[in-house]
Write a structure and sequence with these properties.
single chain, 326 residues, alpha/beta, Rossmann fold, eight-stranded mixed beta sheet, two-stranded antiparallel ribbon, 10 strands
Length: 326
Amino acid sequence: MTQRLFKHDNIKFNPCFLVRNQHVQSILASSRWRTPRKNYMLDNSQELIVTTSAGSKLLSFYSRQKAGKGLIILLHGWEGSSSSAYILASGSFFYNFGFSICRLNLRDHGDSHHLNEGLFHGALLDETFDAVNQLAQLEKDLPVYIIGFSMGGNFALRIARKNSQIPIQNLKSVFAVSPPLDPYKTTLAIDNGYFFYRKYFLKKWKRSLIKKQQLFPQKYDFSKMLKAKTCMELTEDIMPYFPDFPSYRDYFNLYTLKNDLFQNLKIPVKIFISEDDPVIPQEDYSSLQENKFFQILKQKFGGHCGFIDLFPMSCWHQERIAEIIN
């Protein structure tokens, strides 16, 4: 199970003109077309339910290498899951390079709605950090890496910051692909940009809420808010279920990432972001300052979580990460 490692004299992503468009890149990121027909990672996958110190339960899938190079923990984006195309593609890619893979589902993602009565929200850092900390111990003394996508990238960056105070065993590097820094602005970009992004996320979010309501009918009634026409409207409507947050702006502020978060890191952190990302405003990145532990690999093309090329089919951020950790 070996795989060719691509070397880049020029680290810039310059895809074939056929897939250069930002929306094509973003759609390809989640397209089943890019997942391998034969996935050895899935053939060697086992379900693990992680119980955190606070009692919450998170669903994960662990694919172990008998003599692996280390462990890579993958974090999906909002309304994605451990079975999203970009997670399966990345997991297969790095498994074929000799790494064990753990695909962690955030609360209420994948087939995990039944595990916790409480609803998912983006500020649930502690339980995610705790789960990652436990999973990092699966490989004993081998190096551990985290790769997060979109909202999973936002979580990965916050985990890197918290790791500075509470070190995770053998965590060597954190990589974030297309992470939103300001979730309020990203939500507005989804709502006010091209309609199919709003339609896509609203449909998946409402489907998730319906599933949660069916599992816990005594606690949840989303019937009125399911009529919401935008993600921001639905966010505002659901706030009564989160009494700890005075308003939706206070909620968003809890996982808004600013420059100070990146100034006291203890491990290397790299962000992969494109200038043409249709849902992440580039102004959010203008105030960030790189340092010896923090680097932004900003590209002209790539869309949202894309960075995919043809002839041969390849994913630029996967190849770059492989070069770094190999």
